[in-house]
Design a protein that fits this description.
This protein has 329 residues and is an alpha/beta fold. It has a single domain, classed as TIM Barrel. Helices cover 39% and strands 16% of the residues. It contains 12 helices and 8 strands. It starts with a helix and ends in a 17-residue tail after the last helix. The structure holds zinc ion. Zinc ion (ZN) binds next to loops.
Length: 329
């Protein structure tokens, strides 16, 4: 398979913090009919580069422009054809927006993923011999009984997990700084809808929002994780900030007004929350490629990066026991 193909559909092994073991995952980066609804409406979230001019999504936009939703069906099956001998247990779809937005919804958003494709995927997974769970992402706006119940029925007893970018439990941080346009009530209602339909949720928590000091950011992430588990979230993904071009965060970084979190801050959040429930630690690589990622001082940076990488594959807190450095406080 060529490099460009791997960028779109690939299988990896990830540590599933719910099952506490390494799990084979099919990752599909699915182009959409249009960019993220929230990006089109107001420019999107201030740290998100997935819909910006340098993103892979924009590079693939011609596919749906000329060939419409049918092209997405074709891409799905081509992607599956490429990985079908690898027996994945988990299927993860990233479309850099809202998988559940098929355009037929009260807020009249421009469709991102056709309903026919949503159903085709869930019907396929429902009959697949090894895939047990499908993970998609969406804003709460599209998480309704009528958008998820038909998909869950097609999944035939398998699990639907929906990721939501809450980022922070603090209204000011979430809406004024990160421009999420999402109330706690909307978030909690979406979590409840997901639970009542027998699906699972995942909340993205963001370390560190702009305008927050290192300590404020640590505290915000810890409080947000506590809040999420309190309101019934099934799993957390801690997103440690990195800088992608074409974002508000990138502009602040260029002006010297923002730095991604210190690696020691990430360790503090992990240690303070690991006992609360399943928490994944997001990677520092993405598309478009980050121009800056979390770091510490030159003498401990590589050791901590390596320990975090090992932690991602084991969730063994003792990996951090022997780490010390003069820079750590
Ligand atoms: Zn250091």
């Amino acid at each position: 398979m060529s490099k460009i193909w791997d960028d779109f559909s690939a299988v990896d092994d990830f540590f599933d913090p719910q099952k506490k073991k390494m799990t084979k995952r099919w990752i599909l980066l699915l182009p959409a009919l249009s960019l993220c609804h929230w990006y089109l409406k107001c420019g999107g979230c201030t740290m998100c580069g997935f819909n910006g001019p340098t993103s892979g999504k924009q590079k693939f936009a011609w596919i749906t422009k000329y060939f419409g939703g049918l092209a997405l069906h074709l891409l799905y099956w081509l992607g599956y054809w490429g990985i079908k001998n690898q027996n994945p247990e988990n299927m993860t779809i990233y479309n850099g927006g809202n998988f559940l937005n098929s355009g037929f919804n009260p807020i009249k958003a421009k469709a991102e993923i056709p309903l026919s494709l949503q159903k085709t995927i869930c019907r396929h997974v429902g009959q697949h011999p090894t895939i047990k769970k499908v993970f998609v992402e969406s804003r709460p706006d599209f998480i309704k009984d009528e958008t998820i119940a038909p998909l869950i029925k097609l999944l035939n007893g398998k699990t639907l997990q929906i990721g939501i970018g809450l980022e922070s439990a603090d209204e000011t941080v979430r809406n004024s700084i990160l421009n999420k346009g999402m109330s706690r009530l909307q978030f909690e209602q979406a979590i409840q809808t997901i639970r009542e339909n027998g699906a699972q949720s995942l909340a993205y928590v963001f370390l560190k929002p702009m305008q927050l000091s290192e300590n404020e950011a640590i505290e915000d992430a810890i409080k947000t994780i506590q809040y999420c588990f309190r309101v019934g979230v099934s799993e957390i993904a801690l997103s440690c900030a990195f800088i992608q071009e074409g974002t508000v965060m990138h502009d602040l970084y260029q002006q010297g007004k923002y730095q991604p979190p210190n690696l020691w801050s990430i360790l503090k959040v992990i240690k303070a929350t690991a006992h609360l429930g399943p928490i994944r630690i997001g990677g520092f690589e993405d598309d478009p490629p980050p121009i800056a990622i979390p770091k510490s001082c030159p003498s401990c940076n590589d050791r901590i990066i390596k320990a975090i990488e090992q932690y991602r594959q084991s969730h063994d807190l003792s990996l951090f026991d022997d780490l010390t450095c003069h820079c750590q406080d």
